[in-house]
Amino acid sequence: MSVTYLEAIREAQFEALRSDPNVFVYGQDIGQFGGAFKATKGLAREFPGRVLDAPISEDAMVGMAVGAAIEGARPIVEMQFADFSSVGFNQIVNQAATLYWRTNTPCPITIRLPSGGTAGSGPFHSQSMESIYAHYPGLVILTPATVEDAYWMLLDSVKLDDPVIFCEHKFLYYHLKAESFGERSLPIGKARIARPGRHATIVAYSAMVHEALRAADELQMEGYQIEVVDLRSVKPMDTDTILGSVARTGRLLVVGESFPWGGVTAEVIARVSTEAFHMLDAPPMRLNSKDTPIPYHPNLWKAHRPTVGSICDALRRLLRF
Amino acid sequence: MTPAVPITCTKADLTPEFRDQYLATYRQMQSSRVLEEKLGSLYRAGGRIVGGVYLGRGQEAFSAAVAMQLRRGQDVYAPLIRDQAGRMAFGEPITDALRTYLGAATGPMRGRDGNIHRGRPQEGELAMISHLGAMVSVVAGALFAKRLRGTMADAVGATSIGDGATSTGSFHEAINMAAVERLPLIISVANNQFAYSTSNDRQFACQDLMDRARGYGVAGWKVDATDLAACLKVARSAVAAARAGGGPQLIVGTLLRLGGHGEHDDASYIPDEVKFSKVGQDCLLVAEKLMIAEGWSTQEEINGWLKEARATVDQAVSLVSKEPIPDPYRESWQALSSSELVESWQL
User: I want to staple B105 with a disulfide (CB 3.0 to 4.6 A). Which of A21, A65, B142, B326 is the partner?
Assistant: First the structure.
């Protein structure tokens, strides 16, 4: 008996709907159809009137969620693909993210973003938006990398009194399996040491954690012990855990799937460079996707995003310095 | 398609009950005008008001007529830029306006936002963001949640926009969604002829904004928004229809913004032939004419109310002027309500 990352998303929503009548789910094709990825399969039948198809109107979907939250509901909005959240961008960053600061009114909404690339999806069904949203004050940005985190962090998101951008990785939906959802472990805002090591630190999040772990396996055969930090939450960012790891290893590589200009990987390096420059034995490195839209063909797509191969190359350069 | 004909009042509409609401609405309009004149003069005097001043001169009848139909505590109201009169009719205290304009730490916005960007969402008065059309779906969401949580009863939500906001994607998405969900949402469109400086002919190509109601499958109402009696008749009918389960109601009011977009704008782009046409008449004067003609009040009475309103505004200005302004050293500088998630490194 095993459960997938996608089942974790579905089961967390089931549990949120079951335990709190103020929770509802709103998104395109999520009702009877169960969602483009089946993340809400069967929920409309279990919870009549609380799992609803939305018109193709991302702006209105998010505005509607904000209004519902003001009135005491705890909405979950499913964007069909993270890419389409750009249409709801204004309501996310200007309405939801500012509401509490402006008016002292909490805004407990969870916006689920099926994120990241899968082969053959092309430029408009593959994007990772965490860096864009993390730039704005007033939002919590979560990037679960494991089945357990997908389940517990989604439940925690719904309970949180602030707007959460929940970046769930589409590549992990079916590929990632676990024995069970396990126990609630770390709270939101805490990073996890996914693998201990002493020669270098990789800071990664979401699907890149798994590429990083495979790279660490490969480098082990060359005699290196690589520590992998899974950020879990990119905002807030657990700077203490990152600094603690760099203090142990003295070398840092940050890996993210989103575009290279600015963003989460740059933020990690900025914090380590300003707070712990003296702990670094080598210039910190970062790996992101290439600075082009995301290509469609698998050959191009695999070369566009960081993979175990490019991470190993970067690690070897980092360790040789 | 033949253009919709504006709804007007007949003698039969002018019942004693209607008269009482008319006079109560007029007094809100008058108070609003007095407050806004004060805000304008504070702006011109300089030094007191931080940022711009955005007035609703000429739009008081349309704004207040809708808000007078709402019940604070049950209904939801999302006023926009030119809704000082509607805000007052919904029960917003004068001090909320002054504290927000003067940036007092005591006001609902605590110096974090200013002028017309104010509200008390937890009391059903939403605080607008500047992006036009963006509040429509928020009101719809509040109504949706009332229905979900079983607290709807016969509540309605109302929001205001202008001719310019009808061009936004937000407006289109939200009115369509509200129609799909059949929510009791009243959208008042004040067609004041100009969105900042852009005239109707550069804003939309349909013959009449009323055509949009048909396109979205919602009820439409058209009114001469300089005529308080007609505004009240339409607002009462539209709000009653929404309360009775009739779904979204689009009210299009025709009027002219009697001033610039803000007090910084001399509105020199508005041609004289528009200014001196019927659309440019002042709704306060039109309202007074009917009151006097019907024998509902006298010029002396109106002057007395004006004096009263000026005294109230002067008192409020003097109160708020003495209040503390925000202190950057005491500001929390936190945008999240979950304080455990605020990152320590940036403090």
Answer: B326
